[in-house]
Design a protein that fits this description.
Length: about 425
C-alpha cells in the first residue's frame, strides 16, 4: 500500500489535498462499488428483507394506526431522500394515511436540527407533507419510561407508535463497533440517564468498546438491550461509498439486517497495520461529520492502532460549527491539558455521567498513547488560542488549515527523513486494525 505523493483528504464539503513524501503508506479499505441501480436495490431490499417478511406483508398483517420512521440527524451522511420515498409508498399502499406517519430525527444528545438542516435531510416535499420532529432528550414531557431497572426513557412518539421503522447508516464506530441498527434507538432516542450506561465510564474503559468489535462490546450490548426493550418493527440501514454513493441496503429484522450490513462494511473498510507508524495523518471524515471538534475525536481514535507509543498524529478537520456543545466546551476548558485528572475524576464518580464526557474519555485513549503534545490538529473552524487550552496541540503557522498542515508535514519529514509515515484519507470511515 504505497501511497501517492499527493493525497486528497475528506475535509468539509470540498476536501483537502496534501503532499506526502514518497514511501508514505496509504491506509484505506477496498471500498465498495456504488450500486448501479440504487432505487431498484432499495426496493428489492424492502421486498427481500433479512429475518422477517417484506415490509408490505408485515404492515398488511399488523394494520398499524400510527407509524414512526426514525432518521439520523445532520451529523450522518445518510441518503434519506433516497430511502424515504419507497418506504412511504409502501406505507400508503398498505392503507396508512399520510397524517398517521411521523418522521423522527434521532438527535440523541446532540442539539436540535435547524429548519435548513431539516430541508437538507428530507427534502421540501417530505418536509411539507409529513410531520417531521426532533427527539428532545432534555424535554421530560416528550419522554416515556419503558423500564426502571435499568432505567430506560425513550421518545414518547416512538415508543407509543403502533409500528416503528428505524433507518440509518452502517459505518465503523469508535466505541460501539459499528453504527446503525440498535443505535437508531440508543442513543438516538433516549435521555441522558439511559445514556449513562451506553456511554458510562466503565463501559468505555472496556477495551472491547472499540472500532469493528461487536462480540463482547459492552457499548453495543447496552444499546441492543435498550432497542430490544423498546421494540423495533423494521430496520432499513445502508452503507455508502467514499463518494457517498449507495453501496448496500440492509432491511428487515433489527439484528439480522444490521449484522449483515456490518459484515459487508467490515470487508470494505478494514485495513490491517502490522507495524505502527511514527506519524499518522488523518481527517475528521468530511461534511457533515467533521463540523465540530466533538465529532473530530472519532478520527483520532480510528487512527490509534496505527500509531506507535510516543508517535504523533496530525489531524485535519473542518470544525465549521466550532467545538460542539456548551457543556463539551466547558469540560475541555475545565481540565485543559490535565487529562489524567479528568480520568481520575470520572472514575471516582462512575455512577454519574456528565453530558459529552464520553468524547473526552475516548480522546484520552489517544492521549495515553502519545500525549497531548503529539496530538496535532489543523482547522480553520476554531480559534487557535481556544484550541491551545485543550488537551491537544493546534497546528500553527501562516495560511489556512491546508497550508499549516502541509507546513507541519514538511517540517516533520525534514527533521525525521527516515520516519515511517501513514495517511488515512477517509478518517473514521476506515476500520484500522493492528495485527
Amino acid at each position: 500500500m504505497v501511497g501517492q505523493q499527493t493525497i486528497s483528504m475528506l475535509y468539509g464539503s470540498d476536501g483537502l489535498t496534501l503532499r506526502f513524501p514518497h514511501g508514505v503508506t496509504l491506509l484505506r479499505g477496498t471500498d465498495a462499488p456504488p450500486l448501479p441501480d440504487p432505487q431498484g436495490s432499495l426496493r428489492e431490499a424492502l421486498e427481500r428483507p433479512y429475518g422477517c417478511p417484506p415490509l408490505r406483508e408485515v404492515l398488511h398483517r399488523r394494520k398499524p394506526g400510527t407509524v414512526v420512521i426514525t432518521i439520523s440527524d445532520i451529523t450522518r451522511p445518510v441518503p434519506n431522500r433516497l430511502l424515504l420515498p419507497p418506504i412511504l409508498e409502501i406505507l400508503h399502499g398498505a392503507g396508512i394515511p399520510r397524517e398517521s406517519v411521523a418522521i423522527l430525527i434521532g438527535t440523541g444528545m446532540h442539539r436540535p436540527s435547524t429548519p435548513e438542516e431539516r430541508q437538507y435531510l428530507v427534502g421540501s416535499e417530505v418536509l411539507e407533507r409529513y410531520r417531521v420532529v426532533d427527539h428532545r432528550a432534555d424535554a421530560a414531557d416528550s419522554l416515556v419510561s419503558v423500564s426502571e431497572s435499568p432505567p430506560v426513557r425513550v421518545c414518547r412518539l416512538f415508543a407509543e407508535a403502533d409500528f416503528r421503522i428505524v433507518t440509518g447508516l452502517i459505518e465503523p464506530h469508535f466505541m460501539a463497533g459499528f453504527s446503525g441498527g440498535r443505535k437508531g434507538v440508543c442513543p438516538a432516542l433516549v435521555d441522558l440517564r439511559t445514556i449513562e450506561r451506553f456511554h458510562g465510564v466503565r463501559t468505555l474503559d472496556d477495551p472491547r468498546a472499540e472500532n469493528g468489535v461487536l462480540a463482547g462490546n459492552p457499548c453495543h450490548e447496552v444499546a441492543l438491550s435498550v432497542a430490544r426493550r423498546v421494540g423495533v418493527d423494521f430496520l432499513c440501514n445502508v452503507a455508502i461509498t467514499r463518494e457517498r454513493g449507495l453501496a448496500g441496503v440492509y432491511c428487515g429484522e433489527l439484528e439480522a439486517a444490521h449484522e449483515a450490513g456490518c459484515r459487508d462494511v467490515a470487508a470494505w473498510t478494514a485495513v490491517a497495520v502490522p507495524v505502527p507508524f511514527d506519524l499518522v495523518v488523518t481527517c475528521g471524515g468530511g461534511y457533515p461529520l467533521d463540523q465540530t471538534l466533538y465529532q473530530t475525536v472519532k478520527g483520532m481514535c480510528t487512527a490509534l492502532p496505527a500509531i506507535r507509543p510516543g508517535g504523533a498524529l496530525l489531524q485535519v478537520s473542518h470544525c465549521g460549527e466550532g467545538v460542539g456543545s456548551a457543556e463539551y466546551r466547558k469540560l475541555l476548558a475545565t481540565y485543559g491539558k490535565d487529562w489524567q485528572r479528568f480520568l481520575r475524576d470520572i472514575r471516582s464518580r462512575a455512577g454519574e455521567t456528565r453530558l459529552d464526557q464520553w468524547e473526552l474519555q475516548m480522546q484520552c485513549r489517544v492521549l495515553e498513547r502519545i500525549g497531548w503534545r503529539n496530538l496535532h490538529l489543523a482547522t480553520d473552524g476554531i480559534d487557535p488560542a481556544e484550541l491551545d487550552r485543550f488537551a491537544l496541540s493546534p497546528v500553527g503557522g501562516d495560511g489556512d488549515a491546508r497550508a499549516r498542515a502541509q507546513g507541519f508535514l514538511d517540517g516533520f519529514s525534514a527533521v525525521r527523513p527516515g520516519a515511517r509515515l501513514a495517511v488515512i484519507p477517509d478518517g473514521p470511515y476506515t476500520l484500522v486494525t493492528a495485527t
